[in-house]
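User: Could you go from structure to sequence for me? I need the amino acid at each position, not a summary. Structure tokens:
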């Protein structure tokens, strides 16, 4: 695979100049080839699959965010707009840096474009009006908001109005009230904006292993005998992941008319994410405990205890997911992830 990159120089201060600079940089990628084919390649519609919007509030985040987006662009070429929005900075400022990259892989040319918008003051609250004309029409718009969004802010509301999907990471300081605000986003905008969460993707192995307990024919009847659950989580930060796992349990069992009481326990021996899930079924001599727990080496251990006897343990490897992986997963989701929204709804209830 070969790759070429072009970048703008100087300060760009308005939308018209940004659009012109995008075209100039794209043409610059073909400056060594003046053939008719090259002219067509430079003028044709981009080989993009989406518009990606990302909001950051601090220059220290930029390098990490750009690395993630560059990694995603290899498999999901996009027009990427990074908004460095600093409302707290005094004075009005709007500057842009434009870059484009073309890759040739197996004879196919793939072009991606990135615009970094740096805004101070009042204009940072209303970047939606700057972003709109820069989007490639008829392509979906994904809004990735690293960190805890300002759900009540004007910029957040404007960008959600443009987005087909809002992506967050509830690992970044979300409390129950923030999960409720996230769900509100999915129920507003006439259903246009769907929502997703990296933490929900991280819980996929937990959900799969838990469900597999009851795939065994002799264990399936116990599913209807669940008495309660206990979720242990590290207390280092808010318990968003534990709430989501509890919401999944409540929503799935609630769909068949079973209410599951859930106890939350802080476990200082682990980090802030879910450390252990215990499901209790039956009573007396027929009681059982189904456990999923995190163990060293990036694995989950699944234990079953029937009465006073251990019925066996198995372990499942859980490879760590990078931010590029987690973002790519969002592109495979349906317009609205109903299971996630139902789990979120159950999670925010006291």
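Assistant: Here is the amino acid at each position, in order:
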């Amino acid at each position: 695979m070969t790759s070429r990159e072009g970048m703008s120089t100087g300060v760009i201060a308005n939308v018209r100049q940004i659009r012109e600079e995008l075209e100039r940089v794209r043409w610059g990628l073909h400056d060594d080839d003046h053939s008719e084919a090259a002219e067509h390649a430079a003028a044709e519609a981009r080989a993009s699959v989406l518009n990606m919007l990302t909001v950051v509030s601090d220059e220290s985040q930029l390098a990490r965010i750009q690395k993630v987006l560059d990694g995603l662009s290899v498999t999901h070429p996009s027009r990427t707009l990074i908004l460095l929005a600093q409302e707290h900075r005094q004075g009005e400022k709007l500057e842009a840096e434009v870059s484009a990259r073309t890759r040739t892989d197996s004879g196919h040319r793939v072009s991606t474009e990135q615009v970094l918008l740096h805004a101070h003051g009042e204009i940072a609250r209303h970047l939606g009006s700057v972003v709109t004309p820069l989007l490639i029409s008829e392509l979906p718009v994904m809004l990735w908001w690293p960190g805890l969004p300002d759900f009540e802010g004007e910029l957040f509301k404007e960008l959600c109005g443009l987005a087909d999907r809002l992506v967050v990471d509830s690992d970044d300081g979300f409390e129950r009230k923030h999960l409720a605000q996230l769900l509100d986003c999915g129920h507003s905008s006439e259903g246009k904006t769907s929502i997703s969460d990296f933490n929900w993707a991280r819980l996929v192995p937990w959900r799969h292993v838990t469900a597999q307990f009851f795939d065994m024919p002799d264990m399936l009847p116990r599913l209807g005998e669940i008495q309660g659950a206990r979720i242990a989580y590290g207390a280092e930060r808010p318990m968003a992941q534990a709430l989501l796992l509890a919401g999944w349990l409540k929503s799935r069992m609630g769909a068949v008319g079973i209410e599951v009481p859930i106890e939350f326990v802080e476990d200082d021996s682990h980090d802030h994410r879910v450390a252990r899930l215990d499901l209790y079924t039956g009573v007396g001599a027929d009681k059982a405990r189904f456990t999923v727990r995190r163990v060293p080496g990036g694995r989950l251990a699944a234990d079953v205890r029937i009465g006073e006897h251990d019925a066996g343990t198995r372990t499942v490897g859980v490879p760590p997911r990078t931010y590029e992986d987690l973002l790519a997963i969002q592109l495979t989701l349906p317009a609205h992830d109903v299971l996630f929204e139902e789990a979120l709804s159950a999670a925010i209830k006291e």
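One structural detail worth keeping in mind: The longest strand covers residues 93-105.
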